Amino acid sequence: MTDMRVAVLGTGYVGLSTGICLAEIGHNVICIDIDERKINKLKERKSPIYEPGLEELLIKNSSTGRLTFTTSHPYALNHADIIIIAVGTPQSDNGRADLSFLEQAAKDLAEHIIRDSIVVVKSTVPVGTNEYLKQLLLGQLKNKVEIKMVSNPEFLRQGSAIQDTLKADRIIIGSDDAGASEKIQEMYRPLNVPFLLTDVRSAEMIKYASNAFLATKISFINGIANLCEAVGADVEDVANGMGYDKRIGSAFLKAGIGYGGSCFPKDVKALLHTSREKGVPFSLLEETIAINDHQQELLVGKAQKRLGELKGKKIAMLGLSFKPETDDMREAPSIKIARALTAAEAKVAAYDPVASGNARKVIGEIITYVDSALEAAKGADALFIVTEWEEFRQLEFEALLDVMKQRIIFDGRNCLDEAALQECGPIEYYPVGRPAVILRRDD
Ligand code: UDX
């Protein structure tokens, strides 16, 4: 394999994981970001995000010299033949994807590209954006160079970004240029992952369709979970039974308090926005969103039903991040839960292994942040499991329940081991989509 010279624009989850993994498979990579603090941190070989395995590979590949960081576009673009754009496309007020970072990236590239290049768009972008960016780029090019565009959406998950990049299920390469497509395949070839070659618009659509489908799968099982509660069935058994059917598959059928994160909420809304814009109704997506909105506040309703008025009640919240193994708070169910509880004048003490710092910025001081599950539980009327951190499965529940005022657990992620909990009974245990039980010691 020939190593290639790659520049990655944007050092968020996608850009950083991509850059590091491309260096790991032998390429020469420069990552660019306008955020000087972030770049300085990366130069010191420290990861700006919490992501398992990322810092090790950052240190390893920085020390070989294959991975470097800069805030200078001219410096990075002077180096690269392949430029990967991985800047954010956040959600704007009307649900549309905000393309301003991409537009800025196109302007920067137009100004500083000095050689024929392949521009790879990894950011999640509405169908047609690659073509729009190409026009923008070509319209402003300072130097006479040839630009080829490739749409290459990213499917990595936070918390397993490195593994997902190194062992992806597939790599989508959308391009109208066979040469560019071949070059990008060559870049990824050491990963030994199946390639799917498509036109640009289909590649863009694959990303939205995949995320919207997964989000819908989650909302579907959450709808079933709510029905299970009403009819006395167990959603874990139901999901298991469904998952055996290969046409359905067992992944993403975990019922709980809904999806959050930087992708599903915004991508479903962006796809819905596209469908409205095109006059093609897709109300299934509206329902996916509505179920999720309801689900994120499920525990609050359950607590109200069990405890009555929440004014003055103390709730221990375990978990703040939108899922385990990340400190990311974007669209985390904990935000809505914290706001709803405090609006009802409950007192909330929250503990998360890594996300408290970020949570403070989003939720603010309306709740108290503590350093352990035990501290959160002190004097609590109920315990909410909001994120399924492994640490919470391993808790010393005996000690925890002893310091609580009432021995009540609402498990929003169905992650606790009922048999182990039973040893610490009596406990009132409220999972999602499964019958609530009073767990008592056998003796
Ligand atoms: C997701 C996609 O999986 C990934 O392919 C895409 O590139 C970005 O968006 P991510 O947001 O990192 O990745 O997390 P993921 O593990 O997919 O979980 C998303 C949310 O769904 C989390 O809040 C999680 O708790 C929830 N979820 C997931 C469920 O509630 N049930 C499930 O069965 C699976």
UniProtKB/TrEMBL annotation:
One of its GO terms (biological process) is UDP-glucuronate biosynthetic process. The active site is at residue 263. Substrate binds at residues 207, 252-256, 260, 323. Keywords: NAD, Oxidoreductase. Its EC number is 1.1.1.22. It is an enzyme of class 1 (oxidoreductase). Belongs to the UDP-glucose/GDP-mannose dehydrogenase family. This is UDP-glucose 6-dehydrogenase. It comes from Mesobacillus selenatarsenatis (strain DSM 18680 / JCM 14380 / FERM P-15431 / SF-1).
